[in-house]
Amino acid sequence: MPERSTAVLDDRLVFTPDDVDLARSPLRGSLGADTFVLGAFNPGFTRLPSGNLLMMVRVAEALCEPVVAGLARAIRWTADGYVLDGWPLADIDMADPRQFELKGKRHRVLGLTSLSWLLPVELDADGRRIVDVHYDRAIAPVADYQHYGVEDARISRIDGRYWMTTCSVSAERHSTTMHVSGNGLDWRLEGIVLDHQNKDMLLYEGRVDGAYWALTRPLGECWFLYPPGSEHLPGPSINLARSPDGLHWRPHEAPGIRPRAGTATAAKVGGGTPPVLTDRGWLTLWHGVAPQETVGVYRTFWALFDAAEPWRLIHLDDTVPVLEANPALTARFADRLYLPSSVVFSTGMVDAGDDWLVASGEADLACRLTRIPKARFA
């Protein structure tokens, strides 16, 4: 077990499922079924031109009656509205509350128990008070590659323009999609930028020699061995990509962050916060997963990439976490937890003077905001 980090100030939940008004959900009007908020979590995070903060909250909306007449139901977007599909219980495995898996298929085939959309939540400049919840600017599925939702926004501000990556989910593909905005509130969908199962795409908050850079995390069904005695483990890793315009991306050859044997990242690694430029280099927070039961234990770690060569990793801390899950924060929601309270998933970081304000999803349930002194990363 890694040593627990204590360099944390003002650590609290700032938005929870109780704060979502489902009467204003984009699913209202066409979906003929009662729903509830399974989670309001994993917020994209940035500062608006006004100085206020924006969280782009993932709202996972689930059916109050997921099983009816022996059928497990899933919500699906269509151009004519939201519909319900049913799958015989005998044909599926429902061990994971977030999804169900069809049995007997040649490939792993999943259905979701909720459909996600994005809700812009505006906070004051210190992140202590909700100023507005912009239901009129919610981002919901609008294309066939988003049949099952839009998930996990990450926001970068580059040369005064906002770039937001999201995961779009459908039977066609599980892709990374891009939105752009001039003011952080009104977004335009630019379409797919990375294809199947490439998650956690984080644009560097600034260009290097005119080029855009990003961290990515491709997934797959198989991995190849490292040589005997290697400190690294096969599996998903954080890679890099470069673009001339922010829309067309080419993978970079140099590896990024890889899971290491004997650490709290041994099960999996993934991107967290878009890299921000400091006097030491590009600082990013990322998550490492240690094996435990089905989901594992998610912790937040940090890394630095070189300022002039943004593909070159110059510091990696995968031993002492910056953040860990805090069960005390979700104790009042104990009866609504559908995952173990061992998950913190950091998704954005904003400059707050001597501190960083870090936004995270806590237990896939609520939005957490943590103030961390910059000295923690010295």
From TrEMBL:
Keywords: Glycosyltransferase, Hydrolase, Transferase
Pfam family, one: Glyco_hydro_130
UniProt keyword Coiled coil present: no
GO molecular function, one term: glycosyltransferase activity
InterPro entries attached to this UniProt entry: Glyco_hydro_beta-prop_sf, Mannoside_phosphorylase
Family membership noted in the UniProt record: Belongs to the glycosyl hydrolase 130 family.
Record-linked PANTHER family: GLYCOSIDASE
Protein name, UniProt field: Predicted glycosyl hydrolase, GH43/DUF377 family
